[in-house]
């Protein structure tokens, strides 16, 4: 396996691990999220402690599910890249394009802020900040570029077909 593919696979696995580590930050900040929501909704007589707790719980569970799926996808793609699956390289490039489109849309529509009425995870979860998303985008760009270098091309051409 050429060094470019080895590096791309390593970066994919690093991203998967860092995403999982980022979820733990959300758990560590759960009390802070709860306090912030209680302060924001203190004037609203229709929002009680149970509603605030439910919002925090939803945020954490949503983060766990989304991060689990994304980490599994990165890991699976790393395995398929390593084995030289041509479709994996194409799929990875398409997913990068989709990520780029969604990120630009998020920046344009919400100006990098969470949608109205949602909990701002950026202050509590490192990987939900625009800077973390930018770093993830750069790593994904490096992976895509490495995947289409001549040594990587030979790796994907030599591998057996699915």
UniProtKB/TrEMBL annotation:
Keywords: Membrane, Transmembrane, Transmembrane helix. The chain crosses the membrane at residues 7-30, 60-79, 91-110, 130-148. This is Uncharacterized protein. It comes from Actinomadura viridis.
């Amino acid at each position: 396996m050429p060094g470019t593919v080895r590096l791309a696979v390593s970066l994919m696995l690093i991203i998967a691990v860092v995403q999982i580590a980022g979820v733990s930050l959300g758990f560590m900040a759960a009390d802070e999220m709860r306090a912030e929501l209680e302060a924001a909704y203190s004037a609203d007589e229709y929002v009680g402690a149970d509603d605030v707790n439910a919002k925090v719980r939803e945020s954490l569970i949503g983060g766990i599910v989304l991060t689990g799926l994304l980490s599994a996808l990165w890991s699976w793609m790393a395995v398929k890249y390593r084995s030289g699956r041509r479709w994996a390289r194409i799929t990875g490039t398409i997913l990068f394009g989709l990520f780029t489109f969604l990120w630009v849309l998020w920046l344009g529509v919400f100006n990098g802020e969470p949608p109205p009425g949602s909990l701002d995870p950026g202050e509590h979860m490192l990987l939900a900040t625009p800077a973390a998303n930018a770093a993830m985008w750069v790593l994904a760009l490096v992976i895509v570029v490495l995947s289409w270098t001549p040594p990587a091309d030979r790796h994907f051409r030599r591998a057996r077909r699915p």
